[in-house]
Amino acid sequence: MIVYVASDHNGTACRNYILKRLQEMKQPAFDMGPQEYDGKVDYPDYAAKVALAVCGNTDDRGILICGTGTGMLIAANRFKGVRAGLATDRATAELMRQHNDCNVIVLGQWRTPMGEMDGLVRTFLETPFEGGRHIPRVEKLEKWGELGWAPILLRTGHARATLEPVVKKQLQGLERGARVRELRRLMGVSRSTLAAMANISLDVLYELEEGETKSPTPSVWPALANKAFGESVFLLLAGVERKVAMDSCT
After folding, report:
1. 138 and 71, same structural domain?
2. Rounded Cα–Cα distance for residues 96 and 76 (Å)
3. In sequence order, what are the residues at sequence separation of 6 or more whose Cβ sits closer than 8 angstroms to the Cβ of residue 39?
4. ∠ CA 124-128-134 to the nearest 5 degrees?
5. Is 4 helix (H, G, I), strand (E, B) or coil?
6. Are 208 and 177 in contact (CB under 8 A)?
7. Residue 6: strand pairing partners
8. Is 158 found in the same domain as 127?
9. What is the residue range of 176's domain?
């Protein structure tokens, strides 16, 4: 299990405190920011980092912190596969795992004393999901999540640095055609929209999805990279080495 931790500027002190406690627990954790020098930041951006890291990984957990916890809670629960709960006491931290199978705990730096937060986090991480009667209820949440999670983030340039490593992780190991299909699903766009973004014909896109082309046309992946996640994702999609792809762009 890996724990991903992020905050906004109001939760920085508590985030640093929790990261130290996790280190003492010998719990693998990843600090997703912000950095001390980032100044004021927008909490949805950092909620998205953690949400995207945990949404496809059933064993991983997330911790989000802002002033009251409300903003982070709303933002994280926009993502399919994320079940975030706001904890102010140990009973809530325990029940959100037992009954709701929450994979993200949200804390409010203004509402919970810092010294109590490590206890909430430990309870959250150590409590198993009870299953049983709770399974169909959680499954309903996941079904409703199919209606849409946050594909717009995958089409905005400012989110590129956040999303690139997560998208790479989800695409890794897939055959090229499956990678293209998964990319289209993640972006929430039609074939015609994706083809237009890449400045290619629908026929070429169909060929890419079916894995019939030996290599992408030079304009496909750089064009998409400028629209979405970043070059390395599309080199992965293309299934070619960086040097080969870069040579084709010159």
Report:
1. yes
2. 15
3. 9
4. 110
5. strand
6. yes
7. 64
8. no
9. 153-249
CA distances (Å), origin 192, targets 38, 99, 144, 198, 206: 38, 42, 26, 10, 10
Task: Identify whether the C-beta of residue 141 lies closer than 8 Å to the C-beta of residue 135.
Answer: no
- Do 176 and 110 fall into the same domain? no
CB contact at 8 A, 23 and 120: no
Shortest CA distance to 108 belongs to which of 79, 129, 84? 84
Helix (H, G, I), strand (E, B) or coil at 139: helix
Domain boundary among the residues 95, 110, 145 is at 145
Cα–Cα dist 79/75, whole Å? 8
Which tokens hold the place of 181?
């299909």
What does the radius of gyration of the chain's CA atoms come to, in whole angstroms? 20
- In tens, the pLDDT along 138-194 reads 988 877 665 444 444 444 444 445 555 656 666 666 666 676 777 666 666 677 776
Q: Are residues 86 and 20 in the same domain?
A: yes
Note if the bond before 136 is cis, omega within 30 degrees.
Answer: no
Average pLDDT, the chain: 76
CB-based burial label for 107 (10 Å; 0-12, 13-18, 19+): buried
Using CA atoms, how far apart are residues 36 and 39, in angstroms rounded to an integer?
A: 7
What are the residues whose beta carbons fall under 8 Å from the beta carbon of 192, sequence distance 6 or more?
202
Which residues are catalytic, by number?
Answer: 66, 99
**For position 90, what pLDDT does the model report?**
95
Rounded alpha-carbon distances, angstroms, from residue 213 to 1, 147, 206: 38, 32, 10
pLDDT for the residue numbered 14: 94
